[in-house]
Amino acid sequence: MADTARRPGNRYGSRPTMKDVAAHAGVGLKTVSRVVNGEPGVTPDTERRVHEAINALGFRRNDSARVLRKGRTASVGLVLEDLADPFYGPLSRAVEEVARAHGALLINGSSAEDPDREQELALALCARRVDGLVVIPAGDDHRYLEPEIRAGVATVFVDRPAGKIDADAVLSDNFGGARHAVAHLLAHGHRRIGFIGDRPVIHTAAERLRGYRAAMAEAGIPVEDTWISLGATDPERVRRAAETLLDGPEPVTAVFAGNNRVTVTVVRVLSERPRPTALVGFDDFELADLLQPGVTVVAQDAAQLGRTAAERLFQQLDGVPHAPERTMLPTRLITRGSGELPPVD
Amino acid sequence: MADTARRPGNRYGSRPTMKDVAAHAGVGLKTVSRVVNGEPGVTPDTERRVHEAINALGFRRNDSARVLRKGRTASVGLVLEDLADPFYGPLSRAVEEVARAHGALLINGSSAEDPDREQELALALCARRVDGLVVIPAGDDHRYLEPEIRAGVATVFVDRPAGKIDADAVLSDNFGGARHAVAHLLAHGHRRIGFIGDRPVIHTAAERLRGYRAAMAEAGIPVEDTWISLGATDPERVRRAAETLLDGPEPVTAVFAGNNRVTVTVVRVLSERPRPTALVGFDDFELADLLQPGVTVVAQDAAQLGRTAAERLFQQLDGVPHAPERTMLPTRLITRGSGELPPVD
């Protein structure tokens, strides 16, 4: 594979100019300039034709923006998925530190897990002339970014891959980490192991479910449907799911929690029950070691995800040629007590 | 007070136009247009004069930007102080929800506690044409925002007030909350009460120190210098401070921790020691109730801070006339065990 899509001046050719827009729209250069600069004297019909040509060619005012920007700081955008998930704190901070080391400002926004919002935000950041984007995607179709990428906006996906476009992605080994977590519970004698995870349309959630199933299959244990609960990670939903797993006639003896939002609610539900239930959570979280028992987790390196993604972004901006790559970072099992409890029937 | 500084078209007059810039610089309108749009044909000296006039008048390309923006979403900026402090998660999310309810995008950035970075970021967001700014300030001089405010950018400070300008601010009752926390420890029999806080140049830290001193003075207890440790809130500094308070010949019997970053480290240090020491923390934090003992805190309503600030911002943007106000939100003492421990000598 020798795709060099993101190198301006290569493969996709150089950026379209105002002249290209004028030729495409069949109008004069001054007319394009008027439309682009919001000056009067253009009929609505002509304005529409110019906008169509701008969209068709993926024209952006970057070249003149460069001049405008003299003395201004370069900037990169980070599209987050959820502002209130503490997992993204160290990731954001790492992206920011790399940006700063490159003399660039970081501008963030959150999609709040809404694909339309993600698109709106990513394009708004491009319209505000960021030089590159780090995206934690909420959606699974990123073709809307193709014109921006062609126009030279560097783009790296992190935590989850891009959908329907070929782009750099920096991911954790979600499958391997989940398999390790469940194998750890199996090694401590558990057979009835529940899994509470995020919605399976989310890449990370699907990969962790796959890891759970793989570990159970390798141990020769048929998984009952009632052991798996997938859905939103708000406390109310997770609490109901945990209570169903724990309060039935044949309760699970261990729970694998699919992310830190799930884990903290499961910890809370378990703390209310006399019967000890083993727990391994995906993602580390603050104070996990000070709970009793300490919470065993499969930890991702959130800071390293952010750092790697940001460094790849600046490699693109520096014009280092490379094909889009998927980088996979390992996870780490941290044993603290909750994952080493024996099964209690 | 009937200051209506932030209403465009009032008091400060309407926005400066390209014509004003041309007159101020002593050049033709076309020359200004060339400079603003980054077109060629302007000598460096003329360009410099035009930029000086732009800066002197606070000219912004907003009017033409409005036209460019047809069909684009309005946006507001949020300048955070620290991406990795979980206190700002719910605050950011609340600002985002209010922005969304008003059909606006939220764009964030973090100053990482650096006043220069705050200024650079706030001005970069203005240059990218946000309609308003919510600022959690790192610095204490915000005169750099005056041209933006005059040009119609709505501005609200949250968590900490603006410095050297008169602007809307939404704050927690840091003084009252801290006084309440320390009075609570005094009511449980403590006399030797330590305070570990953030750097006193930070408004919230200074207010909390003032609350600590007020409660101690009201109880007639002279405060020894060694009981107070102010500085960065990184785990290493806080650990050293806590160990000094706890391991001397006359250790404190209770600690008041000045924010959530301090509290989690103090919890960790106390968990390593056999002698129970009482603790009240400023700021609630996740899992505080599941620790043993549960951690008594003075809770701020971070979401309500964000919501109130954002609503005030949109009132400004809607042209609702009002004088700059300081809104103070109450704090709430939540007792969970650690703050009710008796003194042990």
TrEMBL record, chains A, B:
Keyword Membrane appears in the UniProt entry: no
SUPFAM superfamilies: lambda repressor-like DNA-binding domains, Periplasmic binding protein-like I
InterPro entries with a match to the protein in the record: HTH_LacI (IPR000843), LacI/GalR-like_sensor (IPR046335), Lambda_DNA-bd_dom_sf (IPR010982), Peripla_BP_I (IPR028082)
Pfam families: LacI, Peripla_BP_3
Superkingdom classification of source: Bacteria
Matches recorded under PROSITE patterns: HTH_LACI_1, HTH_LACI_2
Positions of transmembrane segments: none
Alphabetized GO MF terms: DNA-binding transcription factor activity; transcription cis-regulatory region binding
Keyword Cell cycle: no
Keywords assigned by UniProt, alphabetized: DNA-binding, Transcription, Transcription regulation
Residue span, HTH lacI-type domain: 16-70
Descriptive protein name: Catabolite control protein A
Native source organism of the sequence: Streptomyces jeddahensis
